Amino acid sequence: MRRPQHDEIHEHVHEHDRGLSYDLPVLARRRxxxxxxxxxxxxxxxxxxxxxxxxxxxATIPEETAGPYPGDGSNGVNVLKESGVVRGDIRKxxxxxxxxxxxxxxxxxxxxVVDADSGCGTPKKGAAVYLWHCDxxxxxxxxxxxxxxxxxxxxxxxxxxKGQVTFTSVFPGCYPGRWPHIHFEVYGGLADATAAxxxxxxxxxxxxxxxxxxxxxxxxxAASVRNLASLSLESDSIFRDGYDxxxxxxxxxxxxxxxxxxxxxx
Length: 266
Prior knowledge:
Layout: H1 20-38, E1 106-115, E2 122-123, E3 128-132, E4 154-158, E5 164-170, E6 181-187, H2 190-195, E7 199-206, H3 209-216, H4 222-229, E8 249-253, E9 257-265
Parallel strand pairs: 1-9
Antiparallel strand pairs: 1-2, 1-5, 3-4, 3-6, 6-7, 8-9
């Protein structure tokens, strides 16, 4: 089912994600699951090969808010129905946009969608992933002042036989109040994604601190250095109740770029 539409965006707070009060229903649900897990009622295992007592399932990717800038029609503009949104390289705006290109350290994101009910052992071929994130300056295309006419750093891909999608992008900046992250929605298929219907899962990917420190020391990320200094994964409004299954594995360097990978059990 679709998420409820957000009625408004309050401009007095830099709220690309609205924090604890906005996400309380989701966070409360996840904390309840963890409490149950502590009582051995619900196993919290990832895709390491461990199964539950029935040997048939692994933990799904945690559900998170899409934030106020999803671009999927749930809060205003809907980029998913635009021709050109199905693409691997999301650095440049497309269609009738202003045609800008997002700058920054190169980043390739590979997500692997797997069937949680099979113990994470079965890739979900033919699913679809919509991915979006802020630019180097911490702005979201379509919404943030200065880039409302852009739609870069947004795209949809269909999973291959390995359950994988790959996006060519740039490393996102760090804006006030949120740990560096990427948003994504998983759909049952490409037709669902481009119609913006029947989301299977909505979540976020987090980046390791050491990688963020290295990237933000490069040109164009000065504001991110200041913003990151006051944040931690443990205090972030989204990731502070657990981020192990959302923390990407990142390899590479600022010259040739980085590759981030994450498995998404759904």
